[in-house]
Predict the structure.
Amino acid sequence: MTKRILSCMQPTSHLHLGNYLGALKNWVHLQDEGAECFYGVVDLHAITQPYEAGDLLDATREIAAAYIAGGVDPEKSALFVQSAIPGHSQLMWLLATMTQMGKLERMTQFKDKAGKHKERAGLGLFSYPVLMAADILLYKTTHVPVGEDQKQHLELAREIAGTFNHRYDVEHFVVPEPYITGAGTRVMSLRDGSQKMSKSADSDMSRINLTDDADMIAKKIRKAKTDPEPLPGDLKGLEARPEALNLVTIYAALAETSGEKVLEEFGGKSFSEFKPALSDLAVAKLEPITRRMNELMSDKAEIDNILVKGAERAQAVAEPVVEDTMKIMGFWRG
């Protein structure tokens, strides 16, 4: 059976190096390996937190441009905007009727984003995992690439699929499996090696954005937090050195090699020697992506044309699933 993959990102800020190494590169491998891929810009998720309405459209286009510049081929993969497919919202409501509030209250992401004042949080933030489940089940997705922070949401999607199939005695929804990406793709903050590189971090110096030019990339790597010790000869020597480990991990991922190989080359050398080499590598890998993104963003009509075609492909799969779901649940369909 052909794998059907769904993976998405929110248009909340610029994509960064962690998004590229942890997700985009893997998306490209999956599409090139023959999987049937659906890659979405999930703008409905983006509005569950405060946002600027005037920025949403261009942010959506920029994320789509980053996908394409990073190697996603719109001819091979369906590249779509979530809100353009009505089935995401429709299916979310249907699934919400069989999702227990207790399970949603235990979602760690809701606790983190709502903070101490969860009674003030919007319903959208609370029900976010149900919309994510709808995103996945709408396409009868077989595999979802997930990181540690998304495993809980995928497990809920699996439970909802199972609940629906059991309640209506059907084999309607596919119970999706996690697609675990390889080790070495978890990119941490350049300012704190214990924190994941994040679009929402206060300091822009904590991340390398895909929109950064060569000078800015070099500056951020030069100023990245390290320690005074030289690089060790093996990975064991990095166990208590999170910032050093992060830079070695980034180098290995960009060079498509292992951390061990990186340390074979740079073991015993200082960061004053390693950082320039990392900068050169990062610029060589990321500059073509940034250039292509700028080209795409200068022709918004072309991006929109790509997204329209992707939405048509996604809608062709999604619409029958919603129709069949409503028939199974007993709704009048005319």
Residues 92 and 130 are 6 Å apart (CA to CA).
